[in-house]
Automatic annotation (TrEMBL):
<keyword id="KW-0660">Purine salvage</keyword>
<feature type="binding site">
    <location>
        <position position="20"/>
    </location>
    <ligand>
        <name>xanthine</name>
    </ligand>
</feature>
<dbReference type="Pfam" id="PF00156">
    <property type="entry name" value="Pribosyltran"/>
</dbReference>
<protein>
    <recommendedName>
        <fullName>Xanthine phosphoribosyltransferase</fullName>
        <ecNumber>2.4.2.22</ecNumber>
    </recommendedName>
</protein>
<feature type="domain" description="Phosphoribosyltransferase">
    <location>
        <begin position="48"/>
        <end position="145"/>
    </location>
</feature>
<comment type="function">
    <text>Converts the preformed base xanthine, a product of nucleic acid breakdown, to xanthosine 5'-monophosphate (XMP), so it can be reused for RNA or DNA synthesis.</text>
</comment>
<dbReference type="InterPro" id="IPR010079">
    <property type="entry name" value="Xanthine_PRibTrfase"/>
</dbReference>
<feature type="binding site">
    <location>
        <position position="156"/>
    </location>
    <ligand>
        <name>xanthine</name>
    </ligand>
</feature>
<dbReference type="InterPro" id="IPR029057">
    <property type="entry name" value="PRTase-like"/>
</dbReference>
<comment type="subunit">
    <text>Homodimer.</text>
</comment>
<dbReference type="InterPro" id="IPR000836">
    <property type="entry name" value="PRTase_dom"/>
</dbReference>
<keyword id="KW-0808">Transferase</keyword>
<keyword id="KW-0328">Glycosyltransferase</keyword>
<keyword id="KW-0963">Cytoplasm</keyword>
<feature type="binding site">
    <location>
        <position position="27"/>
    </location>
    <ligand>
        <name>xanthine</name>
    </ligand>
</feature>
<comment type="similarity">
    <text>Belongs to the purine/pyrimidine phosphoribosyltransferase family. Xpt subfamily.</text>
</comment>
<feature type="binding site">
    <location>
        <begin position="128"/>
        <end position="132"/>
    </location>
    <ligand>
        <name>5-phospho-alpha-D-ribose 1-diphosphate</name>
    </ligand>
</feature>
Length: 196
């Protein structure tokens, strides 16, 4: 998606360890009109899927998922990384390793918000090694819901997460796929959507 690639080139910052900071517009400070355009693009790409729930993981994916969900007119459900006093009832639980935070989280989701009747679209800001998506996919599988696919804002194509998921038959739609990063440049993979 050219709009996203241009914004990453303009405002993204590459940090040591293959970290791409887009916190000025995507996942710390959020440019709502811009993210709304991303939501429209996800709706276009998944227009053929009977989505009933958008699923993400806290925290960076929540805002993006909300703007995507308004285009599908469905609720957002997010997996929490910590148990809290207001969580009750039966839970889906899995473990997720964070590439950025270099730690493993127990993630939980109340069973009352995801069931076998649901058709799920997973939304996340980044895809690196695919650990977060794998964890969310385990929750979807345990619930009996249908996984319609995963919508990713930025995929690090030089890491194996996206390719591994696609090899498993998962429909992954990434709005920008980074092929390589240096201190002063980011290059993107071109795909069949670039000219549409």
């Amino acid at each position: 998606m050219q709009l996203l690639e241009e914004r990453i080139r303009k405002d993204g910052i590459v940090k040591p360890g293959n970290i791409l900071k887009v916190d000025s517009f995507l996942n710390h400070q959020m440019d709502i009109p811009f993210i709304n355009e991303l939501g429209k693009e996800f709706k276009r790409r998944f227009a053929d899927a009977p989505i009933t729930k958008i699923l993400t993981i806290e925290a960076s994916g929540i805002g993006i998922a909300c703007l995507v969900a308004q285009h599908f007119n469905v609720p957002v459900v997010f997996a929490k990384k910590a148990q809290s006093l207001n969580l009750d009832g039966e839970m889906y639980c899995t473990k997720v390793q964070s590439f950025t935070h270099k730690r493993v989280y127990d993630v939980i989701l109340s069973k009352k918000f995801l069931s076998a009747e649901d058709h799920v679209l997973i939304i996340d800001d980044f895809l690196a090694n695919g650990c977060a998506l794998q964890g969310l996919m385990e929750i979807v599988k345990e619930s009996g819901a249908v996984l319609e696919g995963a919508g990713i804002v930025v995929e690090k194509g030089f890491q194996n997460g996206g390719d591994s998921l696609r090899e498993q038959g998962i429909r992954v739609e990434s709005l920008a796929i980074v092929d390589s990063m240096t201190d002063d440049s980011v290059s993107f993979r071109k795909d069949e959507w670039d000219n549409k």
